[in-house]
Write a structure and sequence with these properties.
The complex is a heterodimer. Chain A is mainly α. Helix content of chain A is 59%, strand content 9%. Chain B has a three-stranded antiparallel sheet with strand order 1-2-3, with no helix packed on it. Classes of the chains: A mainly alpha, B mainly alpha. Chain B: It comes from Cinnamomum micranthum f. kanehirae.
Chain lengths: 159, 155
């Protein structure tokens, strides 16, 4: 494991994803997650921490983002790089992007939640629902009546 | 930690293309976070995407963040029965339309001299005050002041 953190906090935390894969993560990275922080404060600091709602591939993504986010502080180039990778993921695989956001939300990692939410918000800006459904493969789960009602209820915002 | 973001993206891309699942199953709570970065008209537009987006577009937490901090003062200008049972979104919609306010006497005569409302995009509080509603020292002194009708005059 490459060490990017300061030398004083090299403690390793062991976590297990929902599909049984075991991860060893530096404490400084793991503590970005408020969920893990709370679990460690409770009691399981010396045991393997289970993450029943996160699969291994998604957890890889989360860790990757956490590390990059730690590196990007005060570094505009890294910030841009992380952003374009996030946008690329959203466009090429919106399903994984949605899983990433769900995991970040579950793990309660505020910095990453803000970033992934902002990237998605910027992508959605100025696009019609029809185009967004097509680009992000979102199924329209409304009946025509429901859709008409939503339009009617939100008319005030466009007058 | 061998996997990098890019090779995971390629792997995931295979099931993302074609008819694989997309962003549709994103949880409502995540959509609510996204809405923190969008304006009310954008949120209302996105409510049509699917049920998760519609749910988040009605969430009190989202609209609480869009209302100006002094929105209660604006509500106090309205009769309570117009806003008592409204959601936060309903309150925003109500306040986005101009609310006439006055000491009561002029409104009773049908003259709207002052209005206040919340801007739909910026959430800023806006106010329109007619020149006739202003207290100006010496306004009655014809030597210095006179009223000129223009095409835009309301009365």
């Amino acid at each position: 494991m490459a060490s990017t953190s300061n030398s004083t906090s090299s403690k390793i935390i062991t976590l297990r994803s929902s599909d049984g894969e075991v991860f060893e993560v530096e404490e400084s990275v793991a503590l970005e997650s408020n969920l893990i922080r709370r679990m460690m404060e409770d009691d399981c600091a010396n045991n393997i921490i289970p993450l029943p709602n996160v699969t291994a591939p998604i957890f890889y993504l989360v860790i990757e983002h956490c590390k990059k986010h730690a590196e990007m502080k005060d570094n505009k180039e890294k910030k841009k790089e992380l952003r374009s990778q996030g946008e690329e993921l959203l466009k090429s695989d919106p399903h994984t992007y949605s899983n990433l956001m769900e995991a970040v939300n579950y793990l309660d990692i505020k910095s990453l939640m803000d970033l992934t939410a902002q990237w998605l918000a910027d992508f959605l800006k100025g696009k019609s629902p029809r185009l967004i459904r097509e680009l992000l493969k979102i199924k329209n789960d409304f009946t025509p009546e429901e859709e008409a009602e939503i339009l009617e209820r939100n008319r005030w915002a466009f007058d | 930690m061998g996997a990098t973001l890019s090779n995971l993206t390629e792997g995931g891309g295979a099931n993302g293309t074609g008819n694989g699942p997309g962003l549709g199953d994103i949880p409502e709570s995540c959509v609510a976070c996204v809405f923190m970065y969008l304006t009310p008209p954008e949120i209302c537009n996105l409510a049509r995407l699917n049920r998760a987006f519609r749910g988040a577009a009605s969430s009190n937490a989202v609209w609480d963040s869009k209302l100006p901090s002094n929105y209660q003062d604006l509500l106090d200008l309205l009769p309570p029965d117009r806003h008592l049972n409204l959601s936060k979104k309903g309150i925003f919609a109500l306040l986005s339309r101009p609310i006439p306010f006055d000491d009561g006497t002029k409104l009773a005569l049908g003259l709207i001299l002052q209005e206040v409302w919340v801007d739909r995009v910026t959430s800023g509080v806006c106010m329109s005050i007619s020149a006739k509603a202003m207290l100006i020292t010496g306004i009655e002194d014809r030597r210095y002041w006179s009223w000129i009708q223009t095409e835009e005059s309301s009365q």
